[in-house]
Amino acid sequence: MTQYSTITSTQPAVTQHKNVNELALSSVAFENFRKMIYDSCGIYFQDNKKYLLESRLLKRINYLGMDSYEEYYDYLKYNSSNIQEKKYLYEAITINETFFFRNQPQLDALVTTVIPQLIASKPGKPRIKIWSAASSSGEEAYSTAIIIFDLLRPKYPDLEIEIVGTDINNAVIETAKTGIYREYSIRNTQPYYLKKYFKPVGNAFEIDPAIKKVVSFKNFNLFDDISMRSMTNFDIIFCANVLIYFDAKAKIKVVSNLYNSLNKGGYLFIGYAETLHTISKAFTIVSFPKTIGYKKE
Ligand SMILES: C[S@@+](CC[C@H](N)C(=O)[O-])C[C@H]1O[C@@H](n2cnc3c(N)ncnc32)[C@H](O)[C@@H]1O
Questions:
Q1: What domains appear along the chain, each with residue ranges and CATH number?
Q2: C-beta of residue 125 within 8 angstroms of C-beta of residue 160
Q3: Is 167 in the pocket of ligand 1 (CB under 6 A)?
């Protein structure tokens, strides 16, 4: 049994096993990891993703100086620090690709129709609560805040907005909280927005403090029914480009919880390549130019 190195961060490997490149994920170990991952977060590794999982886990095994995939599996399953190690596992296995203004048609739908409709349907001071579920490093949440500030605040000066971004990967949540982004993230951002809502810091860009103030982030597992019950009264939920990693059963569970998190009249938006066909009949499909939304009637 290897002495485990102290786990303090997910920095590159500090302890390299001498035969680390020879380690292989056996079929049995693959099944065990696949089940453990699926049961805890809904991500399902198809058979053709075995090598991807193998290489992602290897980095962590290497970091911990362990001798085998089986040893890492037992460590996750039986060690008392496994809650923290599970977080590192999620950091190792998730795919966090995102960028500012990734889905412009959805943002257009918010500005032209969804938010004005929601404001008109609520008595008193207008207040909109938005959830960027699976936010990754926060670009979707901040893009939403930017378009609301720029295009709706002039029309509704007392509009209050609250945007919450959540993700199972704690490292990306920490990046989101900084509000500082490299050029890769802002590659699809209009120069007008860049100038108005970002400040250059070295070779990066920092989000305007007024935008940051209405957006908060937390580590959160969409597959955890108990935590999901705490997410209530949302007017708009984005859950984009994450359902693709789940199987049908997991999608049904997550989408049904998202439905419960929405107010009546609220909307769920998912990714370009995703559909709720065969997953949920609870929503009304509403068409907008170049996109659709799922409305809770
Ligand atoms: C490809 S990114 C999508 C980011 C953003 N929504 C977008 O469309 O640009 C998918 C994100 O889902 C997160 N994720 C995967 N499983 C999750 C779960 N069970 N709960 C919360 N987040 C999860 C991953 O960590 C990753 O950051």
A1: 20-93 (1.10.155.10), 104-295 (3.40.50.150)
A2: yes
A3: yes
